[in-house]
């Protein structure tokens, strides 16, 4: 009878510990999810845009923000997803991870330990404390030493061969003179002689003068190569120019900064759902009405049928939603 009563006490205590741990984890999960949701909304990022950036389903982000860890694979996945969200929102990761529950094995009470004294004594007598750890460390150290020696033996001859075969190579190249294009109507037709770029022969370099004594001693007469004259092509502008896009469609979206947009037509077909790079212009045509959702509305310029459209009137929390009819 005493054994049955002690077993029931242990069962009740373990049940109370599990219930308390679950309640504590649920409170921590809710507080962490609410914190991430508040930070995302303050940054003006739509949950769909955040899901596209992190390449995860929207349902997993919603479960994370609502504290529903039972909808996620495990606590480790939830902590990793929260860390990715923090890095995307550019906030500190450590305070957020402190709000998440830590997965740890339940501890047994004193009565449970007393109920199994024979098992504890057998476990203590079977393995000496620290013996396995010392053996594993020695084996690991010996393996690392052997691996390092094998790598040195394998790669040392290859390195010596490459260093020994590397030698300076000299090439006698003729003089090259670039002249502007003098064809009629070309941009370089009026260029003066000061614009001519002349490259001397490679034999004038000091490094080649030191490596060519044998050629001079051989007494061979080498004819000088004739100068090569090439026209200089017109200089292109270094800056990338974006051609003006004619606003032919009913909806034209211009991204002033990195943003996100989604456009669907009347039939529910998705015409656009992706990130827009800085300076990108997108013209959309489809069955009206067009449903438009834009993240970071302050970084987007919209034209409807060739006329500017003010998205601030349909913007909430920096996310604009409107229809083009």
Q: Could you describe the 3D structure shown?
A:
- This protein has 325 residues and is an alpha+beta fold.
- Among the domains are: 119 residues, lambda repressor-like DNA-binding domains (434 Repressor (Amino-terminal Domain), Orthogonal Bundle); 74 residues, Immunoglobulin-like (Sandwich).
- The chain contains ten helices and twelve strands.
- The strands form three sheets. A five-stranded antiparallel beta sheet has the order 6-5-8-12-11, covered by helices on one side.
- A hairpin with a 2-residue loop joins β11 and β12.
- α1 packs parallel to α4.
- The longest helix has 42 residues.
- The chain is elongated.
- The N terminus is likely disordered.
């Amino acid at each position: 009878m005493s054994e049955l009563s002690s077993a029931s006490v242990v069962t009740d205590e373990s049940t109370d510990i599990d219930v308390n741990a679950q309640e504590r984890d649920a409170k921590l999960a809710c507080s962490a999810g609410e914190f991430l949701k508040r930070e995302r909304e303050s940054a003006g990022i739509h949950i769909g845009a955040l899901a596209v950036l992190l390449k995860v389903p929207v349902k997993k982000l919603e479960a994370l923000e609502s504290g529903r860890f039972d909808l996620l694979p495990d606590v480790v996945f939830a902590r990793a997803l929260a860390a990715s969200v923090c890095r995307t929102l550019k906030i500190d990761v450590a305070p957020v991870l402190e709000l998440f529950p830590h997965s740890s094995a339940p501890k047994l009470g004193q009565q449970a330990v007393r109920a199994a004294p024979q098992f504890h004594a057998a476990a203590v007598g079977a393995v000496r404390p620290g013996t396995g750890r010392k053996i594993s460390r020695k084996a690991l150290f010996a393996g690392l030493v052997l691996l390092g020696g094998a790598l040195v033996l394998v790669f040392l001859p290859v390195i010596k061969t490459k260093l020994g075969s590397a030698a300076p190579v000299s090439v006698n190249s003729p003089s090259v003179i670039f002249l502007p294009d003098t064809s009629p109507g070309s941009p370089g037709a009026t260029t003066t002689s000061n614009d001519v770029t002349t490259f001397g022969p490679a034999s004038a370099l000091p490094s080649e003068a030191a490596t060519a004594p044998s050629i001079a001693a051989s007494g061979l007469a080498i004819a000088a190569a004739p100068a090569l004259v090439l026209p200089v092509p017109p200089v292109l502008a270094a800056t990338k120019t974006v051609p003006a896009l004619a606003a032919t469609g009913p909806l034209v979206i211009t991204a002033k900064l990195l943003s996100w947009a989604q456009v669907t037509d009347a039939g529910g077909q998705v015409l656009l759902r992706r990130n827009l790079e800085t300076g990108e212009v997108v013209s959309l045509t489809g069955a009206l009405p067009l449903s438009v959702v834009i993240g970071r509305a302050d970084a987007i310029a919209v034209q409807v049928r060739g006329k500017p459209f003010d998205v601030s009137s349909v913007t909430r929390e920096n996310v604009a939603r409107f229809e083009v009819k």
